[in-house]
Description:
The two termini are 26 Å apart. Helix 3 packs across helix 4 (140-152). By secondary structure, the chain is an alpha+beta fold. The chain has a 6-stranded mixed beta sheet with strand order 6-7-8-3-9-10, with helices on both faces. A 5-stranded antiparallel beta sheet has the order 13-12-11-14-20, with no helix packed on it. The chain has a 5-stranded antiparallel beta sheet with strand order 15-19-16-17-18, with no helix packed on it. It has 2 domains: 3-236, 3-Layer(aba) Sandwich (Rossmann fold); 242-360, CATH 2.40.50.140. The chain is built from 9 helices and 20 strands. Residues 46-47 line the site of magnesium ion.
Amino acid sequence: xxxxxxxxxxxxxxxxxxxxxxxxxxxxxxxxxxxxxxxxxxxxxxxxxxxxxxxxxxxxxxxxxxxxxxxxxxxxxxxxxxxxxxxxxxxxxxxxxxxxxxxxxxxxxxxxxxxxxxxxxxxxxxxxxxxxxxxxxxxxxxxxxxxxxxxxxxxxxxxxxxxxxxxxxxxxxxxxxxxxxxxxxxxxxxxxxxxxxxxxxxxxxxxxxxxxxxxxxxxxxxxxxxxxxxxxxxxxxxxxxxxxxxxxxxxxxxxxxxxxxxxxxxxxxxxxxxxxxxxxxxxxxxxxxxxxxxxxxxxxxxxxxxxxxxxxxxxxxxxxxxxxxxxxxxxxxxxxxxxxxxxxxxxxxxxxxxxxxxxxxxxx
Length: 364
Ligand SMILES: Nc1ncnc2c1ncn2[C@@H]1O[C@H](COP(=O)(O)OP(=O)(O)O)[C@@H](O)[C@H]1O
Ligand SMILES: [Mg+2]
C-alpha cells in the first residue's frame, strides 16, 4: 500500500504490561472507508491494539498515525475515533433518544439541530418509534444499535468495535452482522472491528489481520486468507484444512515435482517454492477441494470411509488412507449427491484432486 492510501498507519507498535509483552511489534496500514477486522483467539492482543488506536493505552514503542497525523500524544477525546464495546455501556435509566444524544451534550448545539441529528441516527439504526422508550426495556440487539448510534452521531472518522456482537445469541448476531455491514457502507467511515469468530470476520470484512500471541500473522482479504494462507497457523485458523508434507523430488523448467508418499506425486509451480531438492515442503488442501469417488479412477488414491457427518448443505467424510497418520477430511455438497451420502462407514472410496488445489505453505 502506498503511504497516501494508508489512513491508519501502525508502525512497529509494541506494548508491554510490566515485563509481559502483550504486543510484540506490529506494522500495518488500514485504508479509508475500509471494514478492517482484527481476528484471533482470546488473549492475543486485539483489545490492547484497539485501545492504543483509541488512546486509552500508550504504546511502549512505535507510532500510530491517523489521516497523516501522529497520534502518540493526542488524548482519546481529541482523536477522530469512537469506540463501541461488547457490553453496550448505555445508560439503562435514560430513554433511547437521550442515550443516543449523550455525546452531543458538551457540543452545546441548538435543541432543534440536536433533535434532527438524533432522528437521523434512529433511522440509520432502524429504531424509529423507539426514541422515548427506556433503554433497559429493549432487547440486546436493540441496545447494541443504540450503542452504535451513540458512537456514530459524533461523526467519527474511525469507529473501533470491540467484539460488539459477542453478547448476542447466534441468530441475532447474524442479523446484526448484516446490519453492521449495511451501516458501515451507508456512513462510509473506517471500521476497525475486533472478533474471535472467523466466520464473522470473513463475512463482514474488506480485509482481516489474523493475530496470535501479540503478533500479526497475515493481513489479507477474506478470499486471500482462505485461498492462500501463508502459514499452517493461519491455514488451521480459517475453515478446516488437511495438512500433508511433501518432499521436493526435482525442479525442472519452472516446475517442481513433490512426493507426497501415500498420495503420490504432484507438480507445482517452482516459483512458489523456496525449497531445494530433497527438502520437506508443508502443504495444505481444503476438504472441498478433494473429490470423493465410489469407484477406482486413474490417479485416484484408495482409502476407506471412517466417519461421515451431515451438515445440511454439505456432508463431511473422514477417510483413512494407508500410510497416512491423519484421517483425510473431504467435504461435498449434498445437492444431487444422494449416492455419496448413502455411503456406509467402512466403505471403500477413492480420493482425487487437482495438483493446483494444494497450497504451499511457508517453511516454519
Ligand atoms: N492492563 C493490563 N495489565 C496486564 N496485562 C494485560 C492488561 N491488559 C491486557 N493484558 C494482557 O495482554 C494480553 C492481551 O490482552 P487483550 O488485548 O485483552 O487480548 P484479546 O482482546 O485479544 O483477548 C493478555 O494476556 C492480557 O492478559
Ligand atoms: Mg478483547
